[in-house]
Amino acid sequence: MSIRQSVRRARRASIRRGFRLHPAQAVAAGFAAAVTAGTFLLWLPPMSREPGGTSFIDALFTATSAVCVTGLVVVDTELHWTPLGHLVILTLIQLGGLGIMIFASLIGLVLARKMSVRTRLNTAAEAKAVGFDDVRGLVRGIVLISFAIEGLTWMFLFPRFLFGYDYSPADAAWHALFHSISSFNNAGFSLYSNSIMDFVADPFICLPMCAAIILGGLGFPVIMQLRKEFARPLHWSMNTKLVLWATVVLLVGGWAYLTVVEWNNPDTFGPLDPGGKLLAGFFASVQTRTAGFNSVDVGLMHDESWVAMDVLMFIGGGPAGTAGGIKVTTFAVLFFILLTELRGEGAVNIFGKRLSRAVHRQAITVVLVAVAAVMVAAVALMHITGLGFDRVLFEAVSAFATVGLSTGITFDLHPAAEVILVVLMFLGRIGPLTLGSAIALRERRILYELPKERPAIG
Q1: N or C: lower Cβ tally within 10 Å for the chain?
Q2: In the 8-state DSSP scheme, what is residue 258?
Q3: Phi, psi of 353 (to 5 degrees)
Q4: What b-and-e string marks burial along 309-324, b requiring 16 or more CB atoms within 10 Å of the CB?
Q5: Helix (H, G, I), strand (E, B), or coil: what is residue 175?
Q6: What 3-state class would DSSP assign to 350?
Q7: What are the residue ranges spanned by the domains of the chain?
Q8: From its phi and psi, is residue 114 left (phi > 0), alpha (psi between -120 and 50) or beta?
């Protein structure tokens, strides 16, 4: 081989390496590709009952909401879309809930029965795995867990729709399937125009959906560890313990607060009996885990309830699952950092282990980026819509945290406002850190340190 041929080959190899995506970039690109495909599918006339089909911006909004498992809608899901459109939305929800890289890995395992090193890296990045030695087992575990929980939820909902509401077997099966998948994936899409308001006092509908939502919100790493070591809590990782404790505290706290505040509200919990009020309060608290269903009209709830729901939605659920928000682990880490500073201690210790200082920076970065994104979007929405800060803030938090709850303003938004929410939903689903590392071309390693100096704080 001549020197000239060697140089050409080296250049071609360098170009090929230059076009390879970083795992974080691959995750972001995968979600963007799914949103694009879903947009063009929903844009087709057969997907809509409206003459002329759906506008491009509404198709984009719906596809993003489905892939990012949010649940915000700008058209009536029940009345606007045809059964074929419902099927596309459900497919996008399942795809977005599993994860684009995980789904691609599953296809590769089924067809080729093998995975490349780059595919393992991309899948591990999306699933927040520490290593990628057993990515095959990780993919199989995530898929089996998803289908098992969705199937179990379907088994509870199907007979209730069939015998309790006199649905035909086909309708009962379809409604049970759609709401099972939407629940576990924390998507919030419903086949009813008023979401789940017709079943506000029905525990046989609300509780199975709540169970699926909570399990999906824990995150796949937690579920997989509990499946193997449920009876050995001493072996649980810090991540599992943080997610479980924070989930219980936030669920119970949100349940108690929302129930008390809305107890006598004639437009929400007021007409219900005590058992119905407790169920509605629990259901509302669960939805703030980024699920997005509503059993009462959120737009008629008290302002105090909106503030609490803003906080709960912003925190979200567990990492590497179907929930959004900054994640309960981020919130817990910041809480323990605060506790450590107040005590005057040096290291942050959680459950008998010292927290890595790199996690401090990551948690602070996620929160600051999230707050900045939500506040900038809220101010922009105020200028576009002319609405008050309380409503647009609720909408912005719901979009970023991929929740799907709304005070009722989404249907009347200007296309520019819809685009802002689309960006928020996308950012919230793939995560600020993932998006940041996807945008960055390379990691910078600085080989020197500057002198330390401490500014005055507080």
Answers
A1: C
A2: H
A3: -135, 150
A4: bbbbbbbbbbbbbbbb
A5: helix
A6: strand
A7: 20-439
A8: beta
